[in-house]
Amino acid sequence: MLLPLHRIDYMINKIPNGRYVKSMRKSAFSTCSGRRFRRRLPALVCILVFLLLLTHSATIQDYVQDGIRLWGYSVLPALFPLIILSRFFIHYHVPETLTELTGKMFGKDHILSDTFPLILLGLASGFPMGAIFLRHYYEKGILSKAAAEKLLPLCSFVSPMFLLGYVHTLCFGDIRAAGGMLHLSAPSILTQEEWRLMLICLYLPLLILYVLFIVKNEYGGRLAAKVNQRQHIKINMILSKPDSAACQPSPGMAAGADITSALSISDIWTSSLETIFIIGIYVMLFSILFGLVRETALSRFLPLQFLLSSLEITTGCQFLIGLTTIGSKIKVLLLILALEFGGICSLAQIAGVLDGCGLSLDTYLKSKLLCCIMAVGLYIIL
Q1: Residues 304, 293: contact at Cβ < 8 Å?
Q2: Helix spans in the chain (H)
Q3: How confident is the model at residue 8 (pLDDT cuts 50, 70, 90)?
Q4: 62 CB-near residues (< 8 Å, 6+ apart)
């Protein structure tokens, strides 16, 4: 005799494990609701942006112009040559050459031979070139996935040119020369000793994390991961290899020309332009968000002021220096936090550079948070 479904459900709920069944149902319902919300969230954001365009069109136009000026006058001249140079570095195997040189210095199997050139290139180039070099190291099988995710926050940092050129100019009073967006001068908020202290607080946490990475790393496990990754990459290259007919030279091409090299050189220009224009879009979007939040009354509160400075690092530094409601010590502290974190816009740029390679940003966020805590602690202690 078959029992009705509602009778079976009643009997299950009466047994001692009935609570477990009900909790499983609630868990499944909450999971489905969460997935449904995540699917609808982009549509809700698009509707919200459309409403903002209708109600704040003049404000949005002003900050779009500010974002384009910021990109054209500050970001493009500083980053575009470095982006092209980083592509040429990768094309002509400069990272591998540096790895060979450090291998001769520290030993071929030493972890410094693989990681030190990456850290050096990343810190010298700044956002997002460090992520470009790291992706190259990862896809070539030089670094395992775990090692690449741990090194990402260490090689993704503001460039020395940004610190010495833009931030130094802001801190010592000539805002007009720094960005071209504010035509005023402000008193210096730092002395030379305090400037050197700020640089120590910015770079020392990165050095500490790098030393900890070297100490905690087990080379045998990393080597095994590298070998497995290289095999996986080779398999993917074989599976995605184009047909031989597509690789034949065109009749008009000179005999003996290096087709792969020619295509790679062409790709350098297109990929560099794509990267710099994507950065420009991010700068413009975060400039709009910065302006909309700044127009609200909540922007008077200190936590939201720090959030504003963390949206886009160039505008954020200028915003912090221009604040008149807080003292110079608090300004420097917030400036250290903003520079150490790098800004949400920089995070979006890194995510765009790493798109499709399978690296997670969870370790990046945790390490950046730890660096911010150490930087603040160093500034308070010193």
Answers
A1: yes
A2: 5-14, 18-55, 57-70, 76-91, 94-106, 111-125, 129-139, 145-155, 160-161, 168-171, 175-179, 192-216, 219-239, 259-294, 302-309, 313-322, 328-341, 344-353, 362-381
A3: very low
A4: 291
Q: Which residue do the tokens 């400069």 mark?
A: 94
* Nearest alpha-carbon partner for 314 in 274, 345, 353: 345
- The structural domains of the chain, with segments of one domain joined by +, span 58-239+268-381
Structural element, H or E, at residue 243: none
Cα 64 to Cα 285: distance, rounded to the nearest angstrom? 8
CB 193 within 8 A of CB 166: no
Spatial neighbors of 319 by CB under 8 A, at least 6 apart, are 290, 294, 305, 308, 309
The DSSP output letter for 159 is -
Q: What is the pLDDT of residue 257?
A: 36
**pLDDT score of 167:** 86
Cβ-based neighbours of 317, under 8 Å, separated by 6 or more: 166, 167, 170, 309, 335, 338, 339
> Per-residue confidence at 182, pLDDT binned at 50, 70, 90?
very low
Q: Which of 130, 179, 118, 180 is nearest to 158 (CA)?
A: 130
